[in-house]
Amino acid sequence: MTTSVVSIVYVNDAPAAARFYGDLLGMSPSFETPGYITFDLGPGADLAVWSGQFEDLSADVPRTSEVCLAIDSGPDEVNAIFKQWQSKGVTILQEPHDAGFGLTFLAADPDGNRIRVAPQG
């Protein structure tokens, strides 16, 4: 039986991507190799950045999935995270808006992978 679900984000430079995600998440990696780095997000959930699968990813290539950071507080927290990420120079794809399930916004990592901040369902 599966003990953990790992969401893998394909990147060009795993250490650089790990620094980016570590800064956004406020945590350090739980496992590191030169091309594969994971973050323990809690029981049964990990986030990994991997540079061994695809080389020379372009931020211009459309992505079909997202990493969603589900927060357990309200719209004020979504707005606070949005402002914090803006001040760090994170690429914002959609500013905060109501998407029917609550206030959300969409950002991108340096490789063009999408990151959504949304309320926990």
Automatic annotation (TrEMBL):
PROSITE patterns: VOC (PS51819). It comes from the Bacteria. Residues 1-120 form the VOC domain. InterPro entries: Glyas_Bleomycin-R_OHBP_Dase (IPR029068), Glyas_Fos-R_dOase_dom (IPR004360), Glyoxalase/dOase/EhpR (IPR026275), VOC_core (IPR037523). It holds the Pfam family Glyoxalase. This is VOC domain-containing protein. It comes from Streptomyces coacervatus. The lineage of its organism: Bacteria, Bacillati, Actinomycetota, Actinomycetes, Kitasatosporales.
